[in-house]
Amino acid sequence: MRRHPLPVLSRVAAAVLPLAGCDVGSAYRRPALDVPDAYRATPMTEAAAWPPMDWWHGFRSEELDKLIAAARAGNFDIAAAIARVRQADAQVRIAGAPLLPDISGSGNASWQHEGLGAGSSSRLGSNAFGGSNASIDFHTYSAGLNASYMLDFWGQNRAARQSAVASAMFSRFDQQTVALTVVTNVANTWFTALSLADRLTVARQNLRDAEQTLAVIQGRFDAGTASALDIAQQAALVAGERALIPNFSNQLEQELIALGILTGQPPERITAQPGTLTALGLPPVASGLPSELLARRPDVAAAEAQLIAQNFSITVARAAFFPSIQLTASAGYQASALNHLVTPGGALAAAAAGLTLPIFDGGTLRGQLDLAKGRYDELLADYRKAVVQAFTDVDNALTAWRYTTEQEKLQRIAVETALRAATIARAQMAAGTVDITTVLNAETTLFNDEDTLVQVRLARAQALLNLYKALGGGWVEPDRPVTDQFPGLKPGMVPGGVALPVGGNLQ
What we know:
Radius of gyration: 39 Å
Number of domains: 2
CATH topology of the largest domain: Outer membrane efflux proteins (OEP)
Mean pLDDT: 84
Order of helices and strands: HEHHEHEHHEHHEEHH
Largest sheet: 4 strands, antiparallel
Low-confidence stretches: 1-6, 15-21, 121-126, 481-507
Oligomer: single chain
């Protein structure tokens, strides 16, 4: 008695399908974190004022806006990060493929030629020499479909896809982190260039003032009221100020050259001309509470996405201990003539169910599970470190902003005081009431204070820049439902930071 294979396969599936959907893993829960109530550098009552997505416009520098626009469009690190997003999207599609049946089609046509011997001459005739040259051709045609499907009883394939989705989210968060880093590096390089231009201006002005003083001393020496030592001391100051100019010029050119790699173009294309730090706008922002920061930092979100992905990888490793059932089926037609191929008499069908259970593997599966757990613990430490690092970055930036603001005010007073002292000393020297040593000391103090003021201004601007970066640069983590750690992803879905094109949808 012949039994049709499809009902048999249906009964096998009916027996095991109630087990489908069993998950041997545990749902991800955010680890416990030590989140302080307030920052060390700010009061607990401070309200949050998060940076806008285009926060760099607040510095009111058209050149900076152009450089950042060029970096967002041409930076190589950003382009590589976008490519990694597309790779992660492809991995999601690959990881999701086992959740669906694998169906393939096949077709075949064969021809066989056979020559007949002498014994067949009475049926097919003989040639003129008495031998048979008869032959016969055989034609066979077949077409069919093959299908296979592995039942995902233990959630192994589903967990593999969820791990890939979490990794794809990591790639998006990492892209935002890269973009924010590139933008802040451009701004930092530009601020440094502005400070060097200011220091160069100060050095040239100080050189002119020192040369004027030297001319006065030379006149007094010619009149017999100054000594050669007086001239030598002032000439040494002049030479020292003149030697600073090539150094500042070199450093300034190096910063402008560095803008080339940041914007993705040869340095010869950089035409930006640095102005002055004093023209920058420095709008401060408020940090709010530490608990709000976790949803504002793409690097923290990226660290957690890796943790989520590894949690699913543990599920995959656990599921490997359990049996796997593979269902296969094929159907098609076979006939000796093409025009008779699709007929009831030529139909073929087959079905099978196979079960595979690991019995002894020398510890491979246990080792893979322990490896997955160890990797999770490593990523957990990295995640907690990223959280603490985020708080540290904000506190450092707030502290630097507070003290550099205070230092700049005090340094301005120092420059004003030193300028008055140098002016008085030069006037008294011209009147012959003080010696060159007094003027030399006054000018040296003034020159140093003016150069220090420029450096303090740079430190203050960098502190604000670091605060924008520490607060996430306007990035906001997208909401995700509790039942699905990461929903389907779409290009541009991740808001905040620098909006950039990303790879295909994850569905």
